[in-house]
Design goal:
single chain, 423 residues, mainly alpha, Growth Hormone, Chain: A, 19 helices
C-alpha cells in the first residue's frame, strides 16, 4: 500500500507501509485470540441488554423520560472518559494488563448493577461497566496489531463480526429471560462473559513474558514512550484525525439514539410491543454481520474511505425515512437499512490501524476518535429525552438522525486520500 501523503512529508519519516509491529511474532497468540473474541462477544451487552426492558426497569427504580435519556447518555460519556485515559494507562502497565482491567470492570459492573436496590446504585455500576466497554473498544484494534501483525485483516474481520453478535442476542433474549428470572437476571447474566475473558488474557501475558529476554522487554517497553509526545502531537494536529473523530461522533448519535429510544418510538408510532421491538433491535444489530465481512478488507485496500462512508450514509437515510413515514409497514426492512449505521464505527476503528504507521500511533488515534466521538455524540439520547419530556413529535428525532447522516456524506469528501496521521 502506498502512502498518498502530500509531498511535504519530511524525507526522514517512517516508510509509508504501516509497520507490522515486532519482527518476531509474540507468544500467547492463541490465548490472545481467545481473549479478543471473548472480549468482543460480551463488549456491547452492557449497552444493548436493558433497552427492551426499559418499562420494567423504570417502574422498579423510578426512571423518568429525562433520567432514562440520561442513562442512555451515561454510556457514551463513560466511553469518552475511558478513551481519554486508556492510552495513558496502557503505556504504563501494557495493553494486555489494561484489557484485563477493562474486562473485569465490564463483568463486575453488569453483575453488580443488576443487584442494585435503587437507581443510584444502578447508575453507578452502569458507569463502571461503561468505562470498561470504552476502554475495551479502543484497545482491541491495537491488540490485534500487536499480536497479529501478519493477520490484521482476518482477525479484525472475525472480531468485528463477533462484536456485532454481542449487540444481537441481548435485545433478542432480554424479554424472554426477564419473564423467566426477572429483569435483574436478564441484564446481569451477560457480565459472566467478560469475567471469563480475563482468563485467556492472563495466559497471554505470562506466556509472552516468559518468551522475552530482559533486554527485549526493556527495548519493547521503552520504544513507545520515547516518541509518545511527538506522536500525540502529530495525531492530534492532523486534519484527517479530526475528520475521523467527526465520523465517530455522528455514528454515536445514531447508534445510541436508536438503542435507547427506538422501542419507545415504535411503540407509540406503530403499536409495536417490547418483545417485538427487542427482535427488531436484534435485526438492526445483525446487519453488521454481513457488512462486517467486507469492512476490514475494504479499509485495508481503499485509499478513498469517503466513498465507503457516503454509501453507508445513503442506505441509512433510506431506513430512517421508512421508519418515519411508514413505521408499521415493512418495519423490518427499514430497521435493516438503519442497521447499517454502526458500520461507521467499524470503518473508523479499523482505519486506526491503516491510517497510522506504528502501534503507539494506532493507540493514540483510537483514543482520540473515541474520546471526541463519544463526548460529542453522547448528548443525543439525553436530547431525545428532552424532546419526549416536552411532547415533541418523533419526527424531530428522525430529522436529527437524518441530518447526522447528511453530515457523514458532507465530511466524507475530506477522506479522499490515504495519509498516515502519526507521520
Amino acid at each position: 500500500m502506498t502512502n498518498a501523503q502530500p509531498a511535504t512529508t519530511p524525507a526522514t519519516s517512517t516508510p509509508a507501509q504501516p509497520a507490522p509491529g515486532p519482527t518476531t511474532l509474540r507468544r500467547g497468540r492463541f490465548a490472545a485470540y481467545l481473549g479478543i473474541m471473548l472480549m468482543a462477544l460480551g463488549l456491547l451487552t452492557a449497552v444493548t441488554s436493558y433497552s427492551p426492558l426499559a418499562a420494567s426497569i423504570s417502574l422498579d427504580i423510578g426512571l423518568t423520560d429525562v433520567t432514562y435519556g440520561l442513562l442512555g447518555t451515561v454510556g457514551p460519556f463513560a466511553f469518552a472518559f475511558a478513551s481519554l485515559f486508556t492510552p495513558f494507562v496502557a503505556r504504563r502497565i501494557s495493553l494486555e494488563w489494561t484489557v484485563v482491567i477493562a474486562a473485569a470492570m465490564i463483568g463486575a459492573g453488569q453483575i453488580l448493577r443488576a443487584v442494585a436496590g435503587e437507581s443510584l446504585g444502578f447508575f453507578a455500576w452502569s458507569i463502571v461497566a461503561m468505562l470498561g466497554v470504552g476502554a475495551g473498544n479502543m484497545l482491541l484494534p491495537p491488540l490485534v496489531k500487536r499480536f497479529f501483525p501478519d493477520r490484521i485483516v482476518s482477525v479484525t474481520t472475525v472480531y468485528l463480526t463477533v462484536m456485532v453478535i454481542s449487540t444481537i442476542y441481548p435485545p433478542l433474549l432480554a424479554v424472554p429471560i426477564a419473564q423467566w428470572i426477572g429483569w435483574r437476571g436478564s441484564i446481569g447474566v451477560w457480565g459472566v462473559l467478560e469475567v471469563v475473558a480475563v482468563i485467556p488474557w492472563l495466559f497471554a501475558i505470562f506466556a509472552n513474558r516468559a518468551s522475552r529476554t530482559s533486554a527485549d522487554a526493556q527495548a519493547a517497553d521503552a520504544a513507545p514512550q520515547v516518541h509518545h509526545r511527538d506522536i500525540t502531537k502529530r495525531v492530534w494536529s492532523h486534519p484527517t484525525s479530526w475528520v475521523m473523530l467527526t465520523m465517530y461522533a455522528l455514528s454515536t448519535i445514531n447508534f445510541y439514539t436508536v438503542m435507547a429510544w427506538i422501542p419507545a418510538i415504535l411503540n407509540q408510532t406503530a403499536g409495536i410491543e417490547p418483545a417485538t421491538a427487542g427482535a427488531l433491535l436484534a435485526l438492526y444489530s445483525a446487519m453488521g454481520i454481513p457488512v462486517g465481512f467486507f469492512i476490514a478488507p475494504l479499509v485495508a485496500r481503499l485509499n478513498n474511505l469517503g466513498l465507503l462512508y457516503a454509501a453507508v450514509a445513503v442506505l441509512v437515510i433510506v431506513g430512517y425515512v421508512g421508519l418515519w413515514f411508514m413505521p408499521g409497514t415493512l418495519t423490518w426492512l427499514w430497521m435493516m437499512f438503519a442497521g447499517i449505521s454502526p458500520t461507521i464505527f467499524s470503518i473508523t476503528l479499523v482505519a486506526t490501524n491503516y491510517r497510522t504507521s506504528s502501534e503507539a500511533g494506532g493507540v493514540t488515534l483510537a483514543g482520540m476518535v473515541t474520546f471526541g466521538g463519544y463526548l460529542i455524540g453522547g448528548f443525543a439520547p439525553l436530547v431525545v429525552g428532552v424532546f419526549a419530556a416536552n411532547a415533541l413529535d418523533w419526527s424531530v428525532t428522525y430529522i436529527m438522525l437524518i441530518a447526522s447522516m447528511l453530515g457523514v456524506i458532507g465530511v466524507s469528501f475530506a477522506l479522499r486520500r490515504k495519509v498516515l496521521v502519526d507521520q
